[in-house]
Fold:
Amino acid sequence: MIRRGFWLLLGAVLGVSGYRRLTRAVKALLPQSQMHARTQAAAPGRHAGTVAFVRDVRIGMADYLDRHREI
Structure:
């Protein structure tokens, strides 16, 4: 069990450090204006997805509470 935990932790550390290195390399290769444009283009989709998710959770919790008030 300890061995599995070690490999899981090692994989997480290597994944995070690899992601950071890749991000740094992309930032170094692309001009700043292109990076800013890509970030701004991706932002509305992320926020719309988050808003929809929160709305679904609230509706689900309201249904749950309505059903369990009768018990």
Remarks:
- The longest helix spans residues 32-69.
- The mean pLDDT is 82.
- The chain is about 95% helix and 0% strand.
